[in-house]
Amino acid sequence: MSTTVFTQTQAMALKIGNAAAQALFCTFRVYKEPDGDLKKIPLKRDGTSGVKAITPSHALFTPDDVWGMEAIQHGQYFGLNMNRPLFVEGRGYLVCIDVDMKHKPEGDKTHQVIQKLGTWVQENDVLTEKSISGKGGRHVFFYAKNADNILRKYPLALGQEIEIFGLDSSDKKSVLLTGEAMKGEVVEVDNLETFLIELGITK
Fold this sequence. Notes:
Elements: H1 3-19, E1 25-32, E2 38-43, H2 63-67, E3 77-82, E4 87-88, E5 92-100, H3 112-124, E6 127-130, E7 138-146, E8 153-155, E9 161-165, E10 173-177, E11 188-191, H4 192-199
């Protein structure tokens, strides 16, 4: 694995770890299946697969562990464990918005909700990275002080959707961190439901 991939994924994990000291990380093994689908396998610190809500903290990595590494022993990327909500007093829930574009037909427009999200990210210097799909997907990380009435997923038109990770209502999984085109900081949003409505997302 090239140094660049390691330094990028490590930098992203450390950026999150600096903003949320109790964040826990796994690693990911990534490979392509014969049909071209990308398979992402989350690994515990001993290299065994499967990271779940019941996985104990000592089986994962702390930000200090990540900081101390010069290479990843198992897998190619770090991942943020979002199987359980991470709540920081005074800041709120650490949330990841996963912008999924992999089913967008070639040449179709980017949905206006995603365009508005992109503008907000730029104007407010919000922490973001490109996702591994290579099809325009992004991860956006921030704190939400209030996060009631949030769905796990909001399908948009044109084969695009937004998934929300890090809440009780979310799918329980780890988010693979690429660190590619990483920019910004972990900012705070007062009310996630209001924010989504302002973007044009309704249930």
